[in-house]
Amino acid sequence: MAERIFLSPPWMTGDEERMVAEAFASRYIAPCGPMVDRFEQVFAQTVGQPCAAAVASGTAALTLLFRDLGMKKGDIVFCSDLTFISSIGPAWHMGVEPVFIDCDRETWTMDPGLLEEALRDAARANRLPKAVVAVDLYGQCCDYDRLEAVCARYAVPLVIDAAEALGARYKERPSGTAGYAAIFSFNGNKIITTSGGGMVVSADAGVVSRARKRSQQSREPVVWYEHEEVGFNYRMSNLLAAVGLGQLRHLPEILERKRKIFDTYREMIPSGSGVSFMPCAAYGEPSRWLTVALLPEADAREAGRPSERVLSAIRTLDAANIESRPLWKPMHLQPVFSGCRCYGGGVGEELFAAGICLPSGAALCREDIERVSASLV
Q1: Which of 35, 196, 264, 377 has a Cα-to-Cα distance from 73 of 20 to 30 A?
Q2: pLDDT tens for each residue of 298-324
Q3: Element (H, E) at 256
Q4: Which H/E stretch holds residue 161?
């Protein structure tokens, strides 16, 4: 059996181990420490924001932002429909009602026209959402300018979930530089990893400062343990921040490799096969976190599951020791959100039915991609 090809394993260079050794030598092992401070500073510079707060996960980052926005039971939040559940999970735990917004076909990200329709309806009902959470999907930025303009008309904060999009660009702006604040993820399969971790970034230093304080149990700055609110234990470990620093040094090379992988798939999979790929939005450059393909549907679709063509392709790839997976299942199709409102939904349903995520780890070589392509078509 040939060696297994994984979907998106981390790409390590050795710098990570050296930075961790430096962290051990400093004796800062627990959360916080000089590596966390350095990681925040370098990351903020990388994404073009004045400040950043390193936390335990992307989900923790969203939780802190939702708390900063004052979300509570009975509130509403609008969220991209085609995404992973963590984009809305923290709000759900707070008792907030989600309303999902479908994507458009040109970018696969939140449709600004549908968002405007949803906000107009909410304004008429005198029940505007606490926030709009727009997701930069599979490494592609959503349309920041249009989304910001729509949200500004209704004075609703825009939160960017850039968990999958480090290194992507929107026009001349890095990903995550829009709205009230943005979050990134450093889960093991993301562009860079800290094993597990996330980051809050914002042009508003107050947002980041409050997130950092709440991630450290909201302790007041006095000698004794004083608390005016209950916070969270969400701070990033100094050791994990060291891994992040080692990874961040190689971000340009990782992005170059990811984009080359996408181009190689397009070269190797013949156009006559009927296979197409996630489009590149005219306004930006995606990071190509994952290469995502659409397979021609030759069978009737069953709502709530991928097409048999996709499931068969996943089985075939697995038999060849190759990992793949379907697209995110739209949130409005998830049983837990049964009954929640969704504006649109048909585009996300079609993409989910026909889509497959192909191995995209930065270490993939041309021979690996050829092996995946041959098993796919």
Answers
A1: 196
A2: 555 677 899 999 999 999 999 999 999
A3: helix 251-268
A4: strand 158-161
